[in-house]
Amino acid sequence: MAPRDLVPSPLFRPGENCCAVARAPRVSFLVDGEAYFDAFVRACERAERSIVILGWDFDSRMVLRYDDDGTPRETLGDFLNRLCERNRRLRIRILDWDFPVVFGGDREYSPIFGLNWRPHRHIQFRFDDTHPVAGSHHQKIVAIDDKLAFAGGLDLTNKRWDSPRHKPGDPRRTFEGEPYPPFHDTMVAVDGDAATALLEVCRRRWERATTHVLKPARRTKGDPWPPDMPVEMRDASLAVSCTLPPGPETPAVRQVESLYLDMIARARRYIYIENQYFTSDRIGQALKERLATPEGPEIVVVTRLLSHGWLEENTMTVLRTRLVRMLREADVHGRFKAYYPHVECLEEGTCLDLHSKVMIVDDEWLRIGSSNLSNRSMGVDSEADVTLEAEGREDMRQAIRAMRDRLMAEHAGVPVEEWVAAVERCGSLAAAVDEVSVGPRRLVDLPTPEISEAVLAAAAIGDMEKPISLDVLVEGLSHDGDLPVPAPRPPRRAAVLATVAIVVAGMLAMWRYTPLAHLVTADSVIDVADTLSTHWWAPLVVILAYTPACMVMFPRPLITMAAVVVFGPVHGLAYAMAGVLIAGIAGYFVGRLVHRDTVRRLAGPRLARLTGVLQRRGFLAVTLVRFVPIAPYAVVNVVMGAMRIKFGHFLLGTFLGMLPGAIAATVLSDQAAEFLRDPARVNPWLVAGAVGAFALLAWSGKRMLVALDRRGARRKAPPMMD
Questions:
Q1: CATH classification at residue 277
Q2: How far is residue 439's CA from residue 425's CA, in Å, rounded to a whole number?
Q3: Would residue 43 be called left, alpha or beta, if left means φ above 0 and alpha means ψ between -120 and 50 degrees?
């Protein structure tokens, strides 16, 4: 390979691409769940005062370790309880993402309820619900006694355990009796000031989520570092970088993205990327610019082949395909390769589930963290990465290079020594992959089939760069207490409508033209509909389903579609309106009970200012607000209740305001039912008319709401909740 640089210029810039720069007396790299979970157990058993756990998910039912014969030793919940029973001075704090119900399929019931696991009284389990709409708490950190910290991509949850062998059919790779595919991820362990820096991230996150200050642990005498945990680096310099979405009083933090861009710009010889996702627009553009440079670095990307479920396949996989195709077209000098690790495991239905987040540059920088190379990890989710720097030291460079070789050899299915020899002979990473990738485990070129612009437009919804907040949703409807006439944005509105139409069409196409068609056939759907329509309780189920659906922001039109398919358009519309009104009434009376300060935080400042219009204009304003989707339906209901809008005005305004949308949804649902029976019976003009009428109603409602406020602009609206 090309000659190595001597001493690079400083990379870390606190406050810009990192939140802290620190030194770690010891550093260990833990590849795959077997190594990490074993190290976690042994380190926690040495804890004296404090264990802090941050995670995207937490499952007390997961098995941490197995006996040699594959027998499970102990679950996570039992292990943590045992630690607290053995050591009365120990306190364990767990911060988990307060996930929406739609993400709850693989998660356990909240430990707060004590159904699956009853935490010891010295274990504080809390949920982080401070993320914006569509955002998540994604940091994965464990800090022990303020002396040792783990960080990376692995959560303490189910379906994460595996060994670097990724053996097909491994009996230990099961959860509650069900096998899951081979799983790959990485973590880094650090101590000293580096552990303190990661603990500070935990403290800030805990305080933001719980409003309580996490005090430092009392001074301890012991060393939580397990004696047999390998030390790959000593006296290493590292940076901790975060992503944090903007809060009500705090700006966004985009250190993760900034450091990615800086590392790409500094690369001279190679960039090795190993990541679950590969969709970030800015990262893609930075890599494209380096490929255009004649003397630029070799770029190797390793990602997983398949995604989790049809939603990711039609969003993240589509966006990754677009990005990889763009980079391959820009690769005029032949320096870009994108692979996936192939593991033959047909009995489990898929290949290796690569979940790691690693970047290695020039044997000089090694990065392990929680951030995916996706738009949402750059600005929507909370993330934490650790980046180690060689500082020109040859021992550090050797350790970084050894980690790169260890990962690539694992994916290529060859011993590390064989991989290193191949790299020396071939002079490049890609050439070495071509030479050694011949066995049942190997690196394979990532397929990138052609995709249409329509599919891309729909997929972009799944990977947002900026968080969705109520302030953003109502932006343009309020400003300094008034509602200005917004600047016309027909292209953006048209794009939104086109995206909605594409998503609906895509769902219909899936039902008709994918393998799902063999399961969800027109006859089967009609048979189910006919069967349900004969039960007296079926209308009641549909009507009552709207209330919990609104609470978890489940798409109401899907329930309407089901009602129309089962009961027909007339009865389906009637049941839909009844369900919507009941859901609205439930939210309204919750607002009457909830403290006004809580509702103010829920509404956000701009929606709070809009409440002046509602208070002044009553029934008419309620109707117009229902025309304009300024915020989730459930939120608006609660806010209106807290504002003490007259119940009669609320009920009548809600009925009249929601009726046009329900009619449009009924028409579209009826056409979807016709599509299932016979695509030739679909009336495209009726579909276009329903979509157009709904869009026109929203636009006119917005203008009328603006006009209402302008009439009363000279007099200030009464405060919302003083």
A1: 3.30.870.10
A2: 19
A3: alpha
